[in-house]
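Now read these lines:
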Amino acid sequence: MTKAIMPDAASEGFAHQYIRVDEQRIHCSVLGDGEPVLLIPGWPQTWYAWRHTMAALAESGFRAIAVDPIGAGHSARPDHGYDTGSAARALHRLMIQFGYDRYRVAGHDVGM
């Protein structure tokens, strides 16, 4: 289930959504149309670290989907599930909910 939220002034033009994955809320920012690219920020950054990259990807014909990882930004702060395997599964399920079983991934730092 998704829930759209209104963008703030710093993120004008970006579509913001909350996606429920395994009963956890994950916040995403989306820009562009085309092949999907999942952008994962490093800890403790949020989707906002990718805003310039998202604009470049959107201009190049991609759909950029940047997340606030679990525990950061507007995403949930559960008691567990911060290990890399759990994080990867949650993000893959998020992309499945967007309708993508294949997508590109970019990330940096501990977020990857």
Q: What stands out?
A: The first strand starts at residue 2 and ends at 5. Residues 1-9 have pLDDT under 50 and may be disordered. The radius of gyration is 13 Å. The beta strands are 2-5, 15-21, 24-31, 35-40, 62-68, 104-107.
